[in-house]
């Protein structure tokens, strides 16, 4: 099954073109990384997938998610676990009083918080506990968002998506603000998630491209400049082209790193 099938998709903010002629097919079982410079359109591509941004009607296009053209947005978002820094910041600003358990439970109603009128079954309570355990944060079940570290809150937000057992996790720069240890354990967590769902990871750090990532899309000049199997796309030449710098990358233990930049 195709998770994403975009053909000739254009999009803009007001009248300003942001992405042009996007052709992208992501199949079940594949794991993708999206790379590109600041402002190249990575988050806009994610917003197109999540239907927070829409294709321009000026061009004829195909936009299918899970082989369907039209979706109830709430249903779609349950199948796509979308983790953005916007959501993280929103919880930080407006959900400081919530516990880790409540952040995870709030996923059932896609709300920022748990309210008296919301009805949860015993199974749902139990599932939220299992999710906390899976994410290794059961010990902070009662801890309030206002007292959490960035890494702890980021895990809770993953948990909020995880209760729906999404078929895909879309992670837009998920390690922003994490120290080296938290970054490493977060990438290990995403690897664990990749065993049960497809991953679409937007990142600026090539060392975060973990071995299970099978495909890479490079965004440059408002379009997908190159895409395909990781080994073919993640080359010094391609990265030098999209970042307009002389970049040398290398690989060790199946992980990529930047050797030098001129
Ligand atoms: N809400 C908005 N209204 C108008 N323009 C926007 C909006 N959001 C993004 N843009 C513009 O669209 C372009 C692509 O932005 P986008 O956030 O998709 O890039 P990005 O690759 O995710 O960048 P970064 O790596 O800095 O997060 C940029 O020129 C940006 O200024």
Residue stretches low in confidence (pLDDT < 50, at least 5 long) are none
Q: Please give the order of strands in the largest beta sheet.
A: 5-6-7-3-8-9
Quantity of strands, as a count = 11
What's the helix-strand series?
EEEHEHEHHHHEHEEEHHEE
Q: Structural class of the secondary structure composition?
A: alpha/beta
Instruction: For the record, give the distance between the C-alpha atoms at the N and C termini, rounded to a whole number.
Output: 42 Å
Mind telling me the C-alpha Rg? 19 Å
The share of residues in helices is 25-40%
Bound molecules: adenosine-5'-triphosphate
Instruction: State the oligomer.
Output: single chain
Please give the largest β-sheet. Answer: 6 strands, mixed
Mean pLDDT value = 94
What is the helix tally? 9
Report the principal-axis shape: globular
The fraction of residues assigned to DSSP E strands is 25-35%
Written description of the protein model:
By secondary structure, the chain is of the alpha/beta class. It has a domain at 86-166. It is built from nine helices and eleven strands. The protein has helices spanning 42-49, 73-79, 85-94, 100-105, 122-134, 150-162, 180-193, 230-233, 236-243, and strands spanning 2-13, 16-27, 32-36, 62-65, 80-83, 168-172, 198-202, 215-220, 223-229, 247-252, 255-261. The strands form three sheets. Strands 5-6-7-3-8-9 form a six-stranded mixed β-sheet, sandwiched between helices. A three-stranded antiparallel β-sheet has the order 2-1-4, covered by helices on one side. A hairpin with a 2-residue loop joins β8 (215-220) and β9 (223-229). The N and C termini lie far apart (42 Å). Bound molecules: adenosine-5'-triphosphate (ATP). The site of adenosine-5'-triphosphate has 10 residues, from α1.
